[in-house]
Amino acid sequence: MSDSVAIVTGGTRNIGLAIAERLAQAGYTPVVTYVRNHEAAEAARAALQALAPRAVVVQADVTAPAAVDHLFRLVMDQFGRLDVLVNNVGPFLARTVAEMTVEEWRMILDGNLSSAFYCSKAALTIMRQQGHGNIVNIGSLNVELARGAPNVVAYNAAKAGLVVLTRSLARSEGPYGIRVNMVNPGFIETDATTDADRDTLPHSIPLRRLGRPEDVAEAVYFLVSEAASYITGTIINVAGGLWV
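The structure corresponding to this sequence follows.
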């Protein structure tokens, strides 16, 4: 495990950082990406290198195919392998179709779905040659049962597409020893959580608390571990029982 490498996109804050830290604790060398927040990137670098000295933080916009190609070349040049890919990048925007601009639509679909396609495609080339690998996509609560959601139409459309991508890759890549699964977070406390959220949201959750980024990270780690070696194409909701 000490030589194993994991890419976590958007891995310098909140859920992404918790996933990278959990994988580092398990012996993986994490490679995490960010786009603009240099301060968070440096803090993440220090935290991750305390757990895994060879951890890497890379500025890369994974909605751009050229940046994805550069990222995966860097990983192969430096480590020569890739064991885990976590597609965690996922911008959110609440808009109706009538309110949304074409640029906003593209931003949400590119961030949540196209980025996962680009990174997964690049990972498959490596993982197929190795004969093993794990991909975990980070979705949205109950999106596998997606219904009409007028205020988050682009986000839900992208995450529903991610469900199809996950299940399709699980079927096509299983023969190559590659497992592909999905984790759907519910209400998770992040740096965007407000006091009002902390006061009101737990009342709607059977477990009566907000989730922690570490709750999502544990689910991701389980899915990439040997304990889940016969699990692929599966979606795990980490939501405290919300909307069951």
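Strands lie at 5-8, 29-34, 56-59, 84-87, 133-138, 178-185, 235-238.
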